[in-house]
Design brief:
two-stranded parallel sheet; 11 helices; single chain; 7-stranded parallel beta sheet; 299 residues; 17% strand
């Protein structure tokens, strides 16, 4: 397939592009500025609403991953960028795809388990209602912005990503330095559920959704075994051969990170990948210790 990928230089995109190419797919990147890459690059400006439909003719599938990073303190300006980059960018892309004479058959658009908000021990599936908070509100609008593509008849799947584990970036990369020094430990009470997934399974899940015609609507992209944060810390320490006993109090998280820490680090989301499993997807790394040993090459 000829696959258009946005956000191709991000944590997921940088792993997805070579994976798709190795699988025989042709990749076209959608970017804000020229990239020094082998694949064809189409330029767009989501903030200005600029995207030439003629550049997208012949695209057979789209993977939309672009969006402002949620890492960092959430000032008013940062929150506006997080929301705008996701909602306006997705709206522009969906409306442009809907105007094509030969639209792609499928749009796989990123979302996040932040959709569910802080839900304690509740088991969360794709049909669970949205929660409350900034990330939940953004995710609801983000997913709704794909509607123009769906109305055109394009199969739309919104992938609600959990914590993507990769030593190259994201949460795991930020945790490694203190844990390697023996300074890691649970965050807050450590009782909150973290729904995680290894980067290898993320890219395989994206390809699976691209090729599985029955998958549409929200799809939880998380491993089948969510763990409490305390267990996550203990497991990472064991894999690294370091103690993981130094907790970060919830009060410190709130002081250091503000609302971002509240919604990303302290919130509990016990999410199940029901639709992926029902469609026949098989996880290569379903348990946390095996995933971490693979990612960190500690076998």
């Amino acid at each position: 397939m000829r696959v258009l990928v946005t956000g191709s230089t991000g944590l997921i995109g940088s792993a997805l592009v070579p994976f798709l190419r190795a699988g025989g797919h042709e990749v076209v990147r959608l970017a804000r500025a020229p990239l020094r890459v082998e694949e064809r690059v189409v330029l767009w400006d989501p903030e200005a609403g600029k995207l030439d439909p003629a550049e997208l003719e012949g695209i057979e599938a789209v993977v939309h991953l672009a969006g402002e990073s949620v890492a960092g303190r959430w000032t008013a300006e940062k929150k506006a960028r997080i929301r705008g980059s996701r909602v306006r960018g997705t709206q522009l892309l969906s409306e442009t795809l809907a105007r094509l004479e030969r639209p792609p058959t499928v749009l796989v658009s990123a979302s996040a388990i932040g959709y569910y908000g802080d839900r304690g021990d509740e088991l969360l599936r794709e049909e669970s209602p949205p929660g409350h908070g900034f990330l939940a509100d953004v995710a609801v609008q983000w997913e709704a912005a794909t509607e123009p593509a769906a109305q055109k008849g394009i199969r739309v799947a919104c992938l609600r990503f959990g914590i993507v584990l990769s030593p190259r970036g994201g949460a795991l990369a930020q945790m490694l330095p203190p844990f390697r020094l023996g300074l890691g430990g649970p965050i807050g009470s450590g009782q909150q559920y973290w729904s995680w997934i290894a980067i290898d399974d993320v890219v395989r899940a994206i390809q699976h959704v691209l090729l599985t015609e029955t998958l549409r609507g929200p799809v939880n992209v998380v491993a089948p075994d969510p763990v409490r944060n305390r267990e996550f810390a203990r497991t990472l320490g064991r894999v690294l051969g370091r103690p993981a006993l130094l907790p970060m109090p919830a009060a410190a998280v709130r002081v250091l990170f503000g609302q971002m820490g509240e919604e990303l680090l302290l919130a509990s989301q016990r999410v199940e990948p029901i639709r992926l499993l029902a469609s026949g997807f098989v996880f290569q790394y379903p348990d946390l210790e095996g995933a971490l040993r693979h990612l960190l090459r500690k076998v």
